[in-house]
Amino acid sequence: MIAFEGITNENALKILNQTTPKEILETYNSAYQINKEQKNTYKENGFITLKNILSGEALNYTRKIVEAAVLIRKGKDNRTLAEKSQYEQSFSQCGYLCWDFPAIKDFVFGKRFAGIARDLMQVPGVRLWHDQALFKEPHGRVTDAHQDISYWPINEGELTTTMWIALNDVPQEKGCLYFYPGSHKIEEKEYVDIFKNPHQPEIVKGIEKVYTPINAGDVTFHSGLTFHGAGQNISNEIREGMTIIYTADGNTFSASDPRNATHKSCSGLKNGDKIETKYTPLLI
Protein backbone atom coordinates (compact mmCIF):
# COMPACT_ATOMS: atom_id res chain seq x y z
CA MET A 1 0.00 0.00 0.00
CA ILE A 2 1.37 3.42 -1.02
CA ALA A 3 1.21 6.21 1.60
CA PHE A 4 3.04 9.51 2.10
CA GLU A 5 3.39 11.76 5.12
CA GLY A 6 1.19 14.85 4.89
CA ILE A 7 -0.61 13.77 1.69
CA THR A 8 -4.01 12.12 1.62
CA ASN A 9 -6.25 10.97 -1.21
CA GLU A 10 -8.43 13.99 -0.44
CA ASN A 11 -5.75 16.71 -0.66
CA ALA A 12 -3.57 15.18 -3.40
CA LEU A 13 -5.55 16.77 -6.21
CA LYS A 14 -5.54 20.14 -4.43
CA ILE A 15 -1.74 19.98 -4.27
CA LEU A 16 -1.54 19.25 -7.99
CA ASN A 17 -4.03 21.97 -8.98
CA GLN A 18 -1.98 24.75 -7.41
CA THR A 19 -0.06 27.03 -9.76
CA THR A 20 3.65 26.25 -9.81
CA PRO A 21 5.49 29.05 -7.95
CA LYS A 22 7.46 31.40 -10.20
CA GLU A 23 10.78 30.62 -8.53
CA ILE A 24 10.25 26.88 -9.03
CA LEU A 25 9.47 27.40 -12.72
CA GLU A 26 12.63 29.47 -13.05
CA THR A 27 14.66 26.60 -11.55
CA TYR A 28 13.03 24.06 -13.87
CA ASN A 29 14.05 26.18 -16.85
CA SER A 30 17.48 27.37 -15.71
CA ALA A 31 20.61 26.15 -17.48
CA TYR A 32 22.84 23.36 -16.16
CA GLN A 33 26.24 23.31 -17.81
CA ILE A 34 27.61 19.98 -19.02
CA ASN A 35 31.36 19.95 -19.60
CA LYS A 36 33.43 18.01 -22.10
CA GLU A 37 34.53 15.42 -19.54
CA GLN A 38 30.91 14.66 -18.61
CA LYS A 39 29.96 14.31 -22.26
CA ASN A 40 32.84 11.87 -22.75
CA THR A 41 31.87 9.87 -19.64
CA TYR A 42 28.33 9.47 -20.93
CA LYS A 43 29.56 8.59 -24.42
CA GLU A 44 31.98 5.93 -23.16
CA ASN A 45 29.92 4.37 -20.36
CA GLY A 46 26.37 4.89 -21.58
CA PHE A 47 25.36 6.52 -18.29
CA ILE A 48 26.37 9.28 -15.91
CA THR A 49 25.53 10.56 -12.41
CA LEU A 50 25.02 14.29 -11.90
CA LYS A 51 24.72 15.96 -8.50
CA ASN A 52 22.27 18.56 -7.21
CA ILE A 53 20.13 18.97 -10.30
CA LEU A 54 17.43 20.06 -7.90
CA SER A 55 17.79 21.20 -4.30
CA GLY A 56 16.05 23.18 -1.61
CA GLU A 57 12.47 24.25 -2.17
CA ALA A 58 12.44 23.14 -5.81
CA LEU A 59 13.29 19.60 -4.75
CA ASN A 60 10.76 19.61 -1.90
CA TYR A 61 8.03 20.90 -4.20
CA THR A 62 8.82 18.34 -6.90
CA ARG A 63 8.77 15.47 -4.45
CA LYS A 64 5.41 16.63 -3.07
CA ILE A 65 3.67 16.89 -6.45
CA VAL A 66 5.03 13.56 -7.69
CA GLU A 67 3.97 11.84 -4.46
CA ALA A 68 0.50 13.38 -4.88
CA ALA A 69 0.24 12.13 -8.46
CA VAL A 70 1.36 8.62 -7.48
CA LEU A 71 -1.16 8.60 -4.64
CA ILE A 72 -3.98 9.51 -7.04
CA ARG A 73 -2.94 6.68 -9.37
CA LYS A 74 -2.17 4.05 -6.72
CA GLY A 75 -3.84 5.18 -3.48
CA LYS A 76 -6.86 2.91 -3.82
CA ASP A 77 -4.73 -0.21 -4.29
CA ASN A 78 -4.82 -1.86 -0.86
CA ARG A 79 -3.02 -5.05 -1.86
CA THR A 80 0.03 -6.06 0.14
CA LEU A 81 3.34 -6.38 -1.67
CA ALA A 82 3.03 -10.17 -1.57
CA GLU A 83 -0.33 -10.01 -3.32
CA LYS A 84 1.07 -8.11 -6.30
CA SER A 85 2.56 -9.56 -9.46
CA GLN A 86 6.29 -10.15 -9.71
CA TYR A 87 6.60 -7.07 -11.93
CA GLU A 88 4.60 -4.88 -9.54
CA GLN A 89 6.83 -6.03 -6.68
CA SER A 90 9.76 -4.41 -8.49
CA PHE A 91 8.14 -0.96 -8.49
CA SER A 92 4.87 0.96 -8.63
CA GLN A 93 4.87 2.45 -12.12
CA CYS A 94 2.90 5.56 -13.06
CA GLY A 95 3.41 6.79 -16.61
CA TYR A 96 2.33 9.89 -18.56
CA LEU A 97 1.70 11.88 -15.39
CA CYS A 98 2.42 15.17 -17.14
CA TRP A 99 -0.68 14.83 -19.32
CA ASP A 100 -2.99 14.45 -16.32
CA PHE A 101 -1.48 16.99 -13.93
CA PRO A 102 -0.31 20.49 -14.99
CA ALA A 103 2.05 20.75 -12.02
CA ILE A 104 3.89 17.64 -13.22
CA LYS A 105 3.90 19.01 -16.76
CA ASP A 106 5.78 22.11 -15.60
CA PHE A 107 8.50 19.82 -14.23
CA VAL A 108 8.62 17.37 -17.13
CA PHE A 109 8.78 20.16 -19.71
CA GLY A 110 11.66 21.85 -17.86
CA LYS A 111 14.45 23.07 -20.15
CA ARG A 112 17.03 22.46 -17.41
CA PHE A 113 16.60 18.71 -17.75
CA ALA A 114 15.98 18.65 -21.50
CA GLY A 115 19.12 20.72 -22.01
CA ILE A 116 21.20 18.12 -20.19
CA ALA A 117 19.71 15.36 -22.35
CA ARG A 118 20.50 17.36 -25.49
CA ASP A 119 24.07 18.04 -24.43
CA LEU A 120 24.82 14.46 -23.33
CA MET A 121 23.48 13.01 -26.59
CA GLN A 122 25.14 15.90 -28.47
CA VAL A 123 22.13 16.59 -30.67
CA PRO A 124 20.50 19.89 -31.73
CA GLY A 125 17.20 19.30 -29.92
CA VAL A 126 15.19 16.78 -27.92
CA ARG A 127 11.55 15.73 -27.67
CA LEU A 128 9.69 14.21 -24.77
CA TRP A 129 9.07 10.48 -25.12
CA HIS A 130 7.24 10.06 -21.84
CA ASP A 131 7.56 10.40 -18.08
CA GLN A 132 7.01 7.85 -15.35
CA ALA A 133 7.33 7.60 -11.60
CA LEU A 134 9.02 4.42 -10.38
CA PHE A 135 8.50 3.98 -6.63
CA LYS A 136 9.94 0.83 -5.07
CA GLU A 137 8.07 -0.20 -1.94
CA PRO A 138 9.87 -1.34 1.23
CA HIS A 139 11.23 -4.86 0.61
CA GLY A 140 10.32 -4.58 -3.05
CA ARG A 141 12.17 -7.03 -5.28
CA VAL A 142 14.96 -6.27 -7.72
CA THR A 143 14.37 -4.59 -11.05
CA ASP A 144 15.82 -7.07 -13.51
CA ALA A 145 18.53 -5.97 -15.95
CA HIS A 146 17.24 -4.83 -19.33
CA GLN A 147 17.59 -2.33 -22.18
CA ASP A 148 14.87 0.33 -22.32
CA ILE A 149 14.87 0.38 -26.11
CA SER A 150 13.41 -3.15 -26.03
CA TYR A 151 10.10 -1.60 -24.96
CA TRP A 152 10.06 1.48 -27.19
CA PRO A 153 9.06 1.60 -30.88
CA ILE A 154 12.00 3.85 -31.76
CA ASN A 155 14.52 3.14 -34.52
CA GLU A 156 17.59 4.94 -33.21
CA GLY A 157 18.08 3.70 -29.66
CA GLU A 158 21.36 5.57 -29.29
CA LEU A 159 19.38 8.81 -29.65
CA THR A 160 17.30 8.21 -26.55
CA THR A 161 18.14 8.90 -22.93
CA THR A 162 16.40 8.66 -19.55
CA MET A 163 16.80 11.01 -16.61
CA TRP A 164 16.16 9.24 -13.28
CA ILE A 165 15.90 11.73 -10.41
CA ALA A 166 15.96 10.66 -6.77
CA LEU A 167 13.22 12.39 -4.78
CA ASN A 168 14.59 10.96 -1.55
CA ASP A 169 18.02 9.55 -0.74
CA VAL A 170 18.61 6.27 -2.57
CA PRO A 171 21.49 4.30 -1.07
CA GLN A 172 22.25 0.83 -2.39
CA GLU A 173 20.11 -0.87 0.24
CA LYS A 174 17.06 1.08 -0.93
CA GLY A 175 17.32 -0.22 -4.48
CA CYS A 176 19.52 2.22 -6.38
CA LEU A 177 20.14 1.74 -10.08
CA TYR A 178 23.07 -0.21 -11.47
CA PHE A 179 24.50 -0.07 -14.97
CA TYR A 180 26.70 -2.20 -17.20
CA PRO A 181 29.30 0.30 -18.46
CA GLY A 182 29.82 0.24 -22.22
CA SER A 183 26.89 -2.11 -22.83
CA HIS A 184 25.29 0.51 -25.10
CA LYS A 185 28.07 -0.20 -27.60
CA ILE A 186 27.16 -3.88 -28.00
CA GLU A 187 25.80 -4.22 -31.52
CA GLU A 188 23.27 -6.94 -30.74
CA LYS A 189 20.15 -6.40 -28.66
CA GLU A 190 18.66 -8.84 -26.15
CA TYR A 191 15.03 -8.59 -25.13
CA VAL A 192 14.50 -9.26 -21.44
CA ASP A 193 10.83 -9.62 -20.55
CA ILE A 194 10.86 -8.04 -17.09
CA PHE A 195 7.06 -8.32 -17.04
CA LYS A 196 6.71 -12.09 -17.28
CA ASN A 197 10.06 -13.82 -17.81
CA PRO A 198 13.01 -11.89 -16.36
CA HIS A 199 16.47 -13.36 -16.82
CA GLN A 200 20.06 -12.25 -16.59
CA PRO A 201 21.07 -11.03 -20.07
CA GLU A 202 23.66 -13.27 -21.68
CA ILE A 203 24.99 -10.33 -23.62
CA VAL A 204 26.49 -8.58 -20.57
CA LYS A 205 28.29 -11.58 -19.11
CA GLY A 206 31.80 -10.48 -18.22
CA ILE A 207 30.84 -6.84 -17.66
CA GLU A 208 30.88 -5.79 -14.00
CA LYS A 209 27.79 -3.85 -12.97
CA VAL A 210 28.24 -0.44 -11.33
CA TYR A 211 25.83 0.60 -8.58
CA THR A 212 24.94 4.31 -8.40
CA PRO A 213 23.69 5.31 -4.94
CA ILE A 214 22.50 8.92 -5.10
CA ASN A 215 21.03 11.55 -2.81
CA ALA A 216 17.75 13.41 -3.22
CA GLY A 217 18.05 15.86 -6.11
CA ASP A 218 20.79 13.89 -7.87
CA VAL A 219 20.12 12.23 -11.21
CA THR A 220 21.39 9.55 -13.50
CA PHE A 221 21.09 9.70 -17.27
CA HIS A 222 21.39 6.51 -19.30
CA SER A 223 21.11 5.61 -22.96
CA GLY A 224 18.18 3.53 -24.14
CA LEU A 225 20.79 0.97 -25.23
CA THR A 226 22.49 0.65 -21.83
CA PHE A 227 21.70 -2.48 -19.82
CA HIS A 228 20.68 -1.55 -16.29
CA GLY A 229 18.52 -2.60 -13.36
CA ALA A 230 18.07 -1.90 -9.65
CA GLY A 231 18.66 -3.77 -6.44
CA GLN A 232 16.10 -4.90 -3.89
CA ASN A 233 14.78 -2.33 -1.43
CA ILE A 234 15.72 -3.92 1.88
CA SER A 235 14.89 -0.73 3.80
CA ASN A 236 11.63 0.25 5.47
CA GLU A 237 11.19 3.34 3.28
CA ILE A 238 9.79 3.82 -0.21
CA ARG A 239 12.42 4.47 -2.88
CA GLU A 240 11.09 7.47 -4.78
CA GLY A 241 12.32 7.89 -8.35
CA MET A 242 10.89 10.00 -11.16
CA THR A 243 11.97 9.69 -14.77
CA ILE A 244 11.78 11.75 -17.93
CA ILE A 245 12.59 9.99 -21.19
CA TYR A 246 13.89 11.94 -24.18
CA THR A 247 14.41 11.21 -27.84
CA ALA A 248 16.46 13.30 -30.24
CA ASP A 249 14.45 15.50 -32.56
CA GLY A 250 14.25 13.65 -35.89
CA ASN A 251 14.27 10.14 -34.42
CA THR A 252 11.86 7.79 -36.18
CA PHE A 253 9.10 5.34 -35.31
CA SER A 254 9.62 1.58 -35.62
CA ALA A 255 6.62 -0.66 -36.22
CA SER A 256 8.75 -3.81 -36.25
CA ASP A 257 7.74 -5.07 -32.79
CA PRO A 258 4.00 -5.28 -32.02
CA ARG A 259 4.76 -5.50 -28.29
CA ASN A 260 5.47 -1.77 -28.34
CA ALA A 261 2.40 -0.57 -30.23
CA THR A 262 0.52 0.60 -27.13
CA HIS A 263 2.70 3.65 -26.38
CA LYS A 264 0.60 6.82 -26.30
CA SER A 265 3.63 8.70 -27.63
CA CYS A 266 3.48 7.01 -31.06
CA SER A 267 -0.25 7.27 -31.70
CA GLY A 268 -0.97 7.54 -35.43
CA LEU A 269 2.60 7.03 -36.61
CA LYS A 270 3.62 4.71 -39.43
CA ASN A 271 6.92 2.86 -39.75
CA GLY A 272 9.75 5.29 -40.46
CA ASP A 273 7.75 8.41 -39.58
CA LYS A 274 9.49 11.10 -37.58
CA ILE A 275 8.36 11.05 -33.96
CA GLU A 276 6.41 14.30 -33.92
CA THR A 277 3.10 13.85 -32.10
CA LYS A 278 0.94 15.66 -29.57
CA TYR A 279 2.60 13.61 -26.86
CA THR A 280 6.20 14.12 -28.05
CA PRO A 281 6.67 17.90 -28.06
CA LEU A 282 10.00 19.53 -28.83
CA LEU A 283 11.32 20.64 -25.43
CA ILE A 284 14.51 22.43 -26.38
Topology diagram in text:
Elements: H1 9-17, H2 22-28, H3 36-45, E1 47-50, H4 56-74, H5 86-90, E2 92-95, H6 102-108, H7 111-121, E3 126-136, E4 143-146, E5 160-166, E6 177-179, E7 210-211, E8 219-223, E9 228-230, E10 239-248
Antiparallel strand pairs: 1-8, 2-3, 3-10, 4-9, 5-8, 5-10, 6-7, 6-9
Helix pairs in contact: 1-4
Short description:
The chain has 284 residues and is α+β, with helices and mostly antiparallel strands.
Which descriptors apply to this entry?
284 residues, alpha+beta, Jelly Rolls, four-stranded antiparallel β-sheet
| CATH hierarchy, class | Mainly Beta
The name of the CATH architecture is Sandwich
The ordered H/E elements are: HHHEHHEHHEEEEEEEE
In the CATH scheme, what's the topology name? Jelly Rolls
Please state the average pLDDT score: 94
What level of helicity do the residues show? 10-25%
Helical segment count: 7
What distance lies between the first and last C-alpha atoms, to the nearest angstrom? 38 Å
> What best-fitting shape do the alpha-carbon axes yield?
globular
Integer-rounded radius of gyration = 18 Å
What amount of the residues lies in strands? 15-25%
Strand order of the largest sheet: 1-8-5-10-3-2
Structural description of this entry:
The chain has helices at 9-17, 22-28, 36-45, 56-74, 86-90, 102-108, 111-121; strands at residues 47-50, 92-95, 126-136, 143-146, 160-166, 177-179, 210-211, 219-223, 228-230, 239-248. The protein has 284 residues and is of the alpha+beta class. The protein has a single domain (9-266), classed as Jelly Rolls (Sandwich). It has a six-stranded antiparallel β-sheet. A four-stranded antiparallel β-sheet has the order 4-9-6-7, with no helix packed on it. Helix 1 crosses helix 4 (56-74). It starts with 8 loop residues before the first helix and ends in a 36-residue tail after the last strand.
